[in-house]
TrEMBL record:
It comes from Pristionchus mayeri. Residues 31-152 form the MATH domain. SUPFAM superfamilies: TRAF domain-like. This is MATH domain-containing protein. It comes from the Eukaryota.
């Protein structure tokens, strides 16, 4: 995992806009890991900004973010094109540029969440305060960008 995160930090310089924000995608036996870079963090407003949509296990996934007062909101949006419900264990990780093994997360990957037509998001409106986000010792922001990993264990047949 540390090698993957270190490689992500190296890839971060190649991604320059939110529209091209999917830095990499990895499918393991246990989970799918989507890595995203969001740029222009200092300009975030209350309007939602999304990564490109990717399809895994028949589900359309995208990472979203927005400014929620003094906090960064971060969430994973999952939609089943067939309209049927599914469960998934998800975890969003904010990755430090300074030390790729240092991540900030709020979710327990072992707790399944139900995704439906009406509830298609998992995450937090108060994922991290901007004070903590911009703390230079933590290294989450570099060149006005952040790195996010979304770990997904989807169970579309359930």
């Amino acid at each position: 995992v540390n090698l993957i995160l270190a490689a992500l930090v190296k890839l971060s310089k190649k991604v320059t806009s939110v529209e091209e924000s999917i830095a990499s995608l990895e499918k393991t036996a246990d989970a799918t890991v989507v890595r995203v870079m969001f740029t222009g963090i200092s300009k975030l407003a209350d309007k939602h900004v999304y990564s490109r949509t990717i399809k895994r296990d028949g589900i359309d996934w995208r990472v979203g973010t927005f400014r929620n007062n003094n906090n960064l909101a971060l969430y994973l949006d999952g939609r089943n094109p067939t309209g049927s419900s599914f469960s998934a264990c998800t975890q969003l990780q904010l990755i430090s540029y300074a030390d790729a093994s240092f991540v900030h997360t709020k979710e327990d990957l072992s707790v399944p969440k139900m995704f439906t037509d009406k509830i298609s998001r998992s995450g937090s409106k108060q994922f991290i305060s901007f004070t903590d986000l911009y703390d230079e010792k933590k290294g989450f922001v570099k060149d006005d960008s952040i790195l996010v990993a979304a770990v997904i264990k989807a169970y579309p047949g359930q």
